[in-house]
Give the backbone structure.
Amino acid sequence: MMMKGGHNHLVIMAGGVGSRFWPMSTPERPKQFIDVMGTGRTFLQQTVDRFEGVVPSENVWVVTSAAYADMVHEQLPQVPRQQVLLEPCRRNTAPCIAYVAWRIKSQDPKANMVVSPSDHLVTDVEEFRRVVSSALAFTETSDAIVTLGMKPTRPETGYGYIQADLSAPSLRNKGVFRVDSFKEKPDLATAKQYIRHEAYFWNSGIFVWNVNTIVNALRIYAPEISVIFEDLLPVYGTDDEQRRIDEEFPKCRNISIDYAILEKADEIFVMPADFGWSDVGTWGSLISLAQKDANGNAVVGQNVSLYETSGCMVHTTEERRVVIQGLKNCIVAEKDGTLLICQLSDEQRIKEFSAV
Amino acid sequence: MMMKGGHNHLVIMAGGVGSRFWPMSTPERPKQFIDVMGTGRTFLQQTVDRFEGVVPSENVWVVTSAAYADMVHEQLPQVPRQQVLLEPCRRNTAPCIAYVAWRIKSQDPKANMVVSPSDHLVTDVEEFRRVVSSALAFTETSDAIVTLGMKPTRPETGYGYIQADLSAPSLRNKGVFRVDSFKEKPDLATAKQYIRHEAYFWNSGIFVWNVNTIVNALRIYAPEISVIFEDLLPVYGTDDEQRRIDEEFPKCRNISIDYAILEKADEIFVMPADFGWSDVGTWGSLISLAQKDANGNAVVGQNVSLYETSGCMVHTTEERRVVIQGLKNCIVAEKDGTLLICQLSDEQRIKEFSAV
């Protein structure tokens, strides 16, 4: 007999190129492959770690781009090569999820899945496991599409929001609500309105469903994508898989799972959660999450000495020695022969800086 | 017949450890061995270059510490190994000059010498050559000890001063004056008084004398040092020289040529000069000498982009790419895995920073 949770599968989406953390993060080594917090584990490794006990280790899948395959294998040696799926090109999350859903279904038709980004931070891992286990229990016996909604702690304009329908007490007992609507990243005034209502949650991008639910939803709402991966059923797990994926995958349109399915399907639920989550999308969010010294500096690096310096984010893991004197509210980051010093308040210009 | 100036010898003192330019300059590679200005030539190389036509290239001598021998040979391949004298330990300038004086005398008893630091900057090389040639002509036929005195352009507190006796018109015709006294680095008020008088000059540390003059002065004023190097006359130029120097040199007391000779001897002259000299003793002096952009930034490094940045000294020759935004009046220097960012106004603390 299979162990409890033996059909639980973890899908980690690790194809992002994270340009906002330049020069720490580069297209050659994006954020998920970096030990951003200086903990000794990369974001990708931390992501796998936090599902321990929730998903059997042999049921971990990673979808990434071919360019990152070696880094995935290096950082997750326990994940078999055939469970690291390689996208030949970037087509956003819907084709990615369609591929891995059919791939898992071909092997485990009773699979129950959680899909997670690879570059987010969770501080309360115990609570995370409780919530994800609860969501998996819910989707094991239902056709629900569940997204984890974070209780907002501030009027964040960098996240999308989920508006829940709080009117059904029978669902509340299961810890979920139906989704009324998904909201794009709001302006500050709108975000302030949202957080006044208990019905609004941050969209974490963590999804839970059983494989038949997502496959059926894709068949209905994205049939032209579905047919591509359904047709490939005979080659999954064979030597021919990558070659055929390389041929067929690029034919998919570029569309997110949010647009393709979540905003259209009926049985969409949000499971409210509060496990210290951040998408760590900016240096500013990183400094707010990191351990700070008495002057509000967050330092990742060896042998860093600060004098008359406050509110700075220092990320200099490749320098042997760093001395900073007289800086306020700056980012100082060095990586692979590239040095960035910039005001934290100007970090939205990093894309511009890195492009020159 | 020997060419004109055939007895002219250049002695470059290249043993300094230059701690004020950390991390650009380190004890492993002090300032004189660095292309500080980004010109393609190190200070040591520039020093040799500026004596071209004044001293025959075969008469160039370098005194340095054993640790720097390879760097000297690498940067000055034209200087024969036996003319690079290696001090086994640091004993300040008097023992250094005594060693090289007897060493040169053993080979060329009619030698006429100019002694120069290796880490200074001269902007008007043509005028430099004119002045040095004139000083060498003076010492060729006199027992004068000549030091080059720079016409002060500001009340600099980082230099020692020379007070000249302007009362002898016969000397003025030769372009020299007798020295009244040497002055230690003054405070600002004193420096301001000095530069109001035309009798005060900056002490450049560039000396000119013939070899018999300096040898005789050493015999009189530093007999215990003199006897050491006089006793070694039989081994100069032999395979035994280094071994004996390694034994004897450490016995010398630690004393500068200024204290040992210049402040005691009688026939001391200053030759006023104005060839754009700086000892480049601080980052501040470097930025004042360097080419600057419209915002007063001096940049030595490749691919450096500055935004809203002014009055900064950037020296990042090992970085492939540097972006700096929103800094004012700072030093940004990176070298060999060490990064320094500090306010220019606090640069006197660099020694403290580098020691930690």
About this structure: The radius of gyration of chain B is 21 Å.
